[in-house]
Amino acid sequence: xxxxxxxxxxAFFLWCVxxxxxxxxxxxxxxxxxxxxxxxxxxxxxxxxxxxxxxAVKPFLxxxxxxxxxxxxxxxxxxxxxxxxAKGRVYAFKSPxxxxxxxxxxxxxxxxxxxxxxxxxxxxxxxxxxEALEKQGMVTSHHSGTIAxxxxxxxxxxxxxxWIYDGDPHNLNNLDRAREITSSLAKEND
Length: 190
Hints:
alpha/beta
């Protein structure tokens, strides 16, 4: 069940990478983007090696400079979720931090952590997730003004992830602030 769920989620945005990868010109940055990625969660693990779940996706990421995804859930060893559920149902997602290596070997190198599951295991869970991905060479953007930055053949690229939580600098519902952030990044980057 999880294998099909992961495949369906990854397929959701793969339409942007269906074109064959051609060698990039010096002034070109080739980007692929997928949606939510989660290689299983506590109590609901894949029956196969989690790294194998992404084998079918790797060819679509090959030849791209930036392979972006949304990390759905946390990569942490924190034991207790901070989420409170209705009627005893809590949707809190976590995978082991070493799963970041599977994502990196597949070719992912830029991640959004700005989603409704980023804090499932509190601030420490988010910190663990960010550190696990960055240890694998990925750049991340999440709440509180963090920006993912990468240089590709001297071309400066930045990504700001937005979500919908009040009071956060990256609240997408604050359109004036979102425009300010993206305009500033456009001036600072290529």
